[in-house]
Amino acid sequence: MRVVQIPLLRDNYGYLIVCEETGEAAVVDPSEAEPVLRSVEREKVALKAILNTHHHRDHTGGNSGILERLALEVYGHKNDQGRIPGLTHPVDERDEIVVGRLRGRVLFIPGHTKGHVAYLFDDNLFCGDTLFTAGCGRLFEGTAEQMHDSLKKLMALPGNTMVYCGHEYTEKNLEFALTVEPNNPAVAKRLDTARSLRAKRDSTVPSTMAEELETNPFLRWHSQEIQSNLRQQFPALPLDPISVFAQVRQLKDKF
Ligand code: ZN
Ligand code: FE
After folding, report:
1. Average pLDDT of the residues of the chain
2. pLDDT in tens, 131-168
3. CA of 53 to the centre of ligand 2 (A)
4. Which positions ≥6 away from 220 have C-beta within 8 Å?
5. N or C: less crowded end of the chain, CB within 10 Å?
6. What are the residue numbers of the active site?
7. Segments forming the whole domain that contains residue 246
8. Cα gap 212→234, rounded to integer Å
9. Are 92 and 78 spatial neighbours (Cβ–Cβ below 8 Å)?
10. How big is the chain by its Cα radius of gyration, in Å?
11. CB 242 within 8 A of CB 111
12. How far, in Å, is the centroid of ligand 2 from the Cα of 8?
């Protein structure tokens, strides 16, 4: 299996998932059609499917333009019927996705939207706007509890799982992470690395789940440092995982 990252719009990423045995491919979250079609040509693959993580326009805006040129299967969560252009295969937790000889699995991870899914192919996780590198998506349609549960589901994946998210937000996310956990040396180190990559306009994505567990403040509700920093600002805050997560998310919204 091969993954091709396609920079789209201002800071979105689409991905080709390629079965190297058959040359067949699926595209995750085509924000726009033309760059995806060019990438399909350049990589000499046969595009068979669109895998949408959720209905937002910056993840589905290319569906119609691609479907005008190619007849494809379109996957998305069943809650997104009517919101994902061209949806042919409404899916849910544990459904299987086939790309050539590759087998992927659907993870239902609501919170950012009520129909958000991730696609897991071996150790490659395509998680849209739920888990970002060093961050997480905003709570547009779901509750903090739903998002916490979705992130917890992703945290249970092996540490070597590659995290392919929907946006290039790492640098900004790590600047925020430092405000809630300034003494975590892994955060400062990761910010240095991200800055030098971005200075060359290189991608900071993918990361690994192990890196996220160490540095992503939205997965670190157990961190003593984060808890005591929150307590200083919000003395009445309960320190259970959902309350800590919700408070960190609110701080990020204002950052
Ligand atoms: Zn989104
Ligand atoms: Fe997005």
Report:
1. 98
2. 999 999 999 999 999 999 999 999 999 999 999 999 99
3. 10
4. 181, 213, 226
5. C
6. 54, 56, 58-59, 112, 129, 167
7. 1-255
8. 25
9. yes
10. 18
11. no
12. 11
Please give the model's pTM, rounded to 2 decimal places.
Answer: 0.98
> Which segments in the chain show pLDDT lower than 50?
none
Point out the ligand nearest to the CA of residue 115: 1
Reading the block at residue 156, the tokens are 């249970």
Domain count, the chain: 1
Extract the tokens encoding 92. 């849910």
Q: What separation in Å is there between the alpha carbon of 230 and the centre of ligand 1?
A: 27
Three-point CA angle 227, 229, 233, nearest 5°: 110
Q: Which ligand lies nearest the alpha carbon of 8?
A: 2
pLDDT, tens digit, for every residue of 100-132?
A: 999 999 999 999 999 999 999 999 999 999 999
Q: Residue for token digits 């990589």? A: 43
Two structure tokens written together for 239:
């320190």
Name 79's Cβ contacts closer than 8 Å, sequence gap at least 6. 110, 114, 115
CATH number at residue 51: 3.60.15.10
